[in-house]
Structure formats: structure tokens, C-alpha cells
Design brief:
This protein is α+β, with helices and mostly antiparallel strands and 104 residues long. It has a single domain, classed as Rossmann fold (3-Layer(aba) Sandwich), CATH 3.40.50.300. It is 14% helix and 28% strand. It contains two helices and four strands. The protein has a four-stranded antiparallel β-sheet, covered by helices on one side. The radius of gyration is 17 Å and the shape is globular. The N and C termini lie far apart (54 Å).
Length: 104
Amino acid sequence: MVVTEDWSFRAEEVTKVYDGTTRANDSITLQVAPGEVYGLLGPNGARKSTLVKQVIGLLKPTGGRITLGPYDLVADPDAACQLCSYLPRRRSRSIRSGSMRPSS
């Protein structure tokens, strides 16, 4: 199979700053080639979700560039929505805690 376009994922110097001072992501650069699997690991509050939301077009970075193949996902967040999937972890009250009751 001949691949005519480079469909690598690239994040270059991606930064997100809140309130002008709080840096959620600070100059993140990474590349994932077609066929590679990449995992974001870190403790709670490490801003992994912030980076993912920037990648899929739900949150605009303060700076940097995010591309998937020929698409600039920062300039065209609609392309990000069409090309990427996202299933967030749903935070809900636990049935075990008694705050939600299953229907009978």
C-alpha cells in the first residue's frame, strides 16, 4: 500500500493559559505517526484532558499548532470534530453511594 499523504498527528509548542497567568499546557510538542499508539499518562490535574480538548477542537489553544495530516486543527476545529473521536469519562453520582437509585 502506498501512502501519498503524511497523516501524522503533530502538536507543536501547544500552550493553554487561563486568566493570563495559569499555564495548563506549556509548550507541548509531540508527533504520532500513522499506526502508532500514544497514551497520555499522568496524575489527576495534570491537564491531560485540556490537551485532548484542544486536539479535538473543543478548546482553542493560546498558542501553538495542532495538525492531523493536511488539516490544521486549530484553524479548522470543525475538521477536528470530523476526524477525531472523544468519549469523556462521565462523572456522575454513584449508585453505590445511594445518591442515585436504580429504577425497578
